[in-house]
Amino acid sequence: MRSTDNDEPVSGHRLPLLYNLVYCSRAAAGIGDADVNRIVESARRWNPVFGITGLLVFGSGVFFQWLEGPRENVLHLMSLLKADPRHESVVPLSESEEVRERLFPDWDMERVEPDSIRDVLEDALDNAEDPKNAEVLRLLLDHLDSGELRQLSAA
Ligand SMILES: Cc1cc2nc3c(=O)[nH]c(=O)nc-3n(C[C@H](O)[C@H](O)[C@H](O)COP(=O)(O)O)c2cc1C
Q1: Fewer CB within 10 Å, N side or C side of the chain?
Q2: Does some domain include residue 138?
Q3: Is residue 39 classed exposed, middle or buried when 0-12, 13-18 and 19+ CB atoms within 10 A define those classes?
């Protein structure tokens, strides 16, 4: 287990090896704002213990989540997430493991409103010094214009 405070640089690099997983899913029937706030509260308690940071968007019955952290911890969380009855049809959008900077180092799990997701991703793209991060962000912005994520921005 590692927290963001002691991200271990890979030898020869100044940056840590990070696993990044982005997915979207459909909220189960009856899941609303209060449930999402409870999810975020619990994520903020546990994610720092596992060195996981990211953001969660909920709108029009669709979730979109960006997770980054040590590979084994992100994959363990993903196995819990897939079994969580509060959502279904979990579709991975992007998955990679690279030596790079954290994109959202201060967000244990930040809830972002659907209206703001484009701004958040564009802002992150403007500030991304790391070309690998910029590539994933461009991919997600493309997803926003087409495919599943269009529902989010239309919320
Ligand atoms: C859309 C969604 C996002 C979630 N994000 C996180 C998260 O970032 N971190 C976390 O610990 N749990 C998150 N959870 C909750 C986990 O699925 C799971 O309930 C939690 O890890 C506790 O597992 P347990 O109930 O088996 O103890 C999320 C659940 C949903 C539905």
Answers
A1: N
A2: no
A3: buried
16 Cα to the center of ligand 1, angstroms: 24
- Residue 153 lies inside a defined structural domain of this protein: no
pTM for the model stands at: 0.88
d(CA 41, CA 30): 19
- Residue 33 resides in a domain: yes
Instruction: Give the domain range for residue 26.
Output: 4-112
Which CATH number characterizes residue 31's domain?
3.30.70.100
Domain count, the chain: 1
Name all residues whose Cβ lies below 6 A of ligand 1.
Answer: 39, 42-43, 46-47, 56, 63, 65, 77, 80-81, 84, 86-87, 109
Taking only the tens place, the pLDDT of each residue in 53-112 is 999 999 989 999 999 999 999 999 999 999 999 999 998 888 999 888 888 999 999 999
β-pairing, 110-112 with 53-59?
parallel
Structural domain includes residue 145: no
